[in-house]
Write a structure and sequence with these properties.
With 427 residues, this protein is of the alpha/beta class. It folds into two domains: 247 residues, 3-Layer(aba) Sandwich (Rossmann fold), CATH 3.40.50.2000; 162 residues, Rossmann fold, CATH 3.40.50.2000. The chain contains 15 helices and twelve strands. Helix 1 links the parallel strand 1 and strand 2. The radius of gyration is 21 Å and the shape is globular. The N and C termini lie close together (10 Å). 52% of the residues are buried.
Length: 427
């Protein structure tokens, strides 16, 4: 039985999709361990996977200096000092992560294949070299330079084809620099000769190793200027038990009236739950629609009433099809989940790759014009949000385009594409 070690680090959206992928590989007869943070151990084990611990859990060291491709700090750093501080904290995070990844690999009787998220790949490639086993990069966001779009963390604005490619190459250099200390320490621990992250990355590229992106071509068509081996295969979705049911209070709320609007900010906006909850309720009532608030890391909440309900974690795959529209931060997974349900989105991007996904949804005609999260502090925030969620809940053109995208997503099998590649690498 081939033994696979998946490694993923960051917030919920960086981890949960790999539980669904791991469950698919488990069903194909592989032994699958998922190395991640303690907060997600119950989710990993519920999916039937072996849990292995990675340090630097963002739930216990907020704000979260996670991967350079997907930071989850509550806001963009402002000015050179803010950017330097973010890079310093991120470098400390990945240095701690490197030692934890080596520890995780040493558990159990052995590993035949490493599967790596964007955060763990720059470290995991060194581990694969030391262990003499193949590694497969499985990022949830596109990271390779292309003329089609600028790096996803640059705000979603195109710089022109030349500028996009130049910015993409610069982004890779920033990541290489970020992982330099961690790579040096990890290679020394593993008994490997010195090599920079850039050298290790270039070796992987030269070897022609496939990189399978867990993204739908509905949102990101594969760039024609990407080299062979870089593929966009479709999403893999968070695992949930087949018999999972909606909580009774939520079931009753849904049955008591027309479809509500969902509002949630995932791992964003920590500590702003009371303010955001009040704003959300005022906007919902101004738009004359019902609402479901998901508390998330922000602690979003409102007093229970006939028209507003606050919930904890519920699988989006079960919840979103019951909604009239969704309002969220536009993390990669949440953006895809809303589209999968065929319902319009009101994007409220906070940071990192979120403006990119917000712009993609809007360009499809499946979302309203994005409202940057910082604008929710403006005097007209309630009116602006109410107008957007009212339109999202009632505009038939938005729903038609979202439904069309959902039907396209339904034809994709991202986990199956990964499973096929894994089968080739382990036989």
């Amino acid at each position: 039985m081939p033994r696979i070690l998946l490694a993923a680090a960051g917030s919920y959206g960086d981890i949960a999709p790999y539980t669904g992928l791991g469950a698919r590989l488990l069903a194909d007869g592989h032994h699958v361990a998922l190395a991640t943070h303690d907060s997600y151990a119950p989710l990993v084990r519920a999916a039937g996977l072996e849990f292995r611990r990675l340090p630097a859990d963002p739930r216990t060291r907020h704000p979260d200096p996670t991967a350079p491709a997907r930071p989850t700090a509550p806001a963009r750093p402002t000015g050179p000092a803010g950017r330097r501080d973010l890079l310093r904290r991120a470098a400390a995070f990945v240095k701690e992560l490197g030692g934890g990844l080596a520890d995780a690999a040493q558990q159990g009787p052995g590993t035949d294949l490493l599967l790596l998220s964007a955060t763990t790949a720059p470290l995991g490639r060194n581990l694969a070299e030391a262990m003499g086993i193949p590694a497969l990069d499985l990022p949830l966001v596109p990271g390779a330079p292309t003329g089609d779009f600028a790096p996803v963390v640059s705000g979603g604005r195109s710089l022109g084809r030349w500028g996009n490619r130049a910015a993409g190459r610069l982004s890779l250099r920033v990541i290489d620099r970020l992982y330099a200390d961690a790579t040096r320490e990890l290679r020394a621990r593993l008994g490997l000769p010195p090599a920079t992250p850039r050298t290790v990355r270039r070796r992987a590229e030269a070897a022609g190793r496939p990189v399978l992106h867990g993204v739908s071509e509905v949102l990101v068509p594969r760039p024609a200027d990407w080299p062979s081996g870089l593929e966009v295969v479709g999403n893999w979705w968070p695992w949930h038990a087949p018999d999972t049911q909606l909580p009774p209070a939520l079931h009753d709320f849904l049955a008591a009236g027309p479809p509500p609007v969902f509002l949630g900010f995932g791992s964003m906006a920590g500590g702003e739950g009371e303010r955001l909850g009040d704003l959300a309720v005022r906007a919902l009532r101004r738009a004359k629609v019902r609402g479901v608030l998901q508390s998330g890391w922000a602690g979003l909440t409102a007093a229970p009433t006939d028209d507003v309900l606050t919930i904890d974690a519920v699988p989006h795959a079960l919840l979103f099809p019951h909604m009239a529209a969704v309002v969220h931060h536009c993390g990669a997974g949440t953006a895809a989940a809303g589209l999968r349900a065929g319902i319009p989105t009101v994007p409220v991007p906070v940071t990192a790759d979120q403006p990119f996904w917000a712009a993609r949804l809007a360009s499809l005609g499946a979302a309203t014009t994005p409202i940057p999260f910082k604008d929710l502090s403006a005097e007209d925030a309630v009116a602006r949000l109410a107008d957007a969620l009212g339109r999202a809940a009632t505009d038939p053109a938005l729903r038609e385009r979202a439904g069309h995208a959902a039907r396209r997503l339904a034809t994709e099998d991202g986990a199956g594409a990964v499973a096929a590649t894994v089968a080739r690498l382990t036989t």
